[in-house]
Amino acid sequence: MRVLNLSTGFKPFDSSLEEIESKSFLFSGGEVHIKLQDAAEEVLVSARLNDSNEVMKLLLAVDALRRNGSKTISAFIPYLPYARQDRVMVGGEPLSIKVMCNLINSCNFEKVYVFDVHSEVSLALLDNCELISNYSLAKQVLSNHTDYLLVSPDAGALKKIYKLAEALAYHNDIILCNKVRDVSNGKIKQITVDQDDLGGKDCFIIDDICDGGATFVGVAKELKKRNAGKVSLIVSHGIMSHGEAELVDWVDHIYTTDSIKNDSSDLISRILLADLIEL
């Protein structure tokens, strides 16, 4: 088996596997083009699908592989785009995750690996899908910590955290937070925490995505009001669309992966997926 890494700076597979080199560029009309330098019968493709050009590059690469004689092609898509758009809220909207999954399914992959996907709807819509959990990420981060608390930032994350706690053999309380939104604009107006005194223990908020970070800032504020120690964040996909400014005053550290990007800082540690997964 050989690997084809389509995203610059992202090599999530065992370095002993031989890589298929490729070159890609945009035509003047905005069209994506890719040219493979080699081929193989069995290929494992990695792709960060951070924008529509990257989606198109994946589709074109699979076509090129098949035309070059590849028989078995699998894909590792660490962050599945449109997984948050997994329902139609009002008339006139698309079911975006289904459109995305239809495109991926058109490639007829032998296997599609995704990392800590946001919505279980995605797993039902993707053919031959295999979910990789966040357990290895959490285990690596927490390996040097004792007597800490796991925190669910909202009710939606709680089911995953119970499963994670079992995998970690974690026996302390799981702290449950809840968001109350203003129905007129969707903004968070209150965050509740189910315990009043956290005993000075370090808290680790667990979730799949950090985008702007407003939820985590709100949760961190409430935890520190309740005698939390350090408040850190473990998220599989660190988008950080608003940068660090809104997070740095309240969150002591953020642990994430390179599923979206490579940059790190004093606040943000990006753990390589190559060190966490084995396909």
From TrEMBL:
Record GO terms (molecular function): kinase activity; magnesium ion binding; ribose phosphate diphosphokinase activity
Domain Phosphoribosyltransferase: start-end pairs: 137-261
Keyword Kinase: yes
GO cellular component, one term: cytoplasm
UniProt-listed GO biological process terms: 5-phosphoribose 1-diphosphate biosynthetic process; purine nucleotide biosynthetic process
Domain (Ribose-phosphate pyrophosphokinase N-terminal) ranges: 26-106
InterPro entries xref list: Pribosyltran_N, PRTase-like, PRTase_dom, Rib-P_diPkinase
Record keywords: Kinase, Nucleotide biosynthesis, Transferase
Position of the signal peptide: none
Protein family according to the UniProt entry: Belongs to the ribose-phosphate pyrophosphokinase family.
Entry protein name: Ribose-phosphate pyrophosphokinase
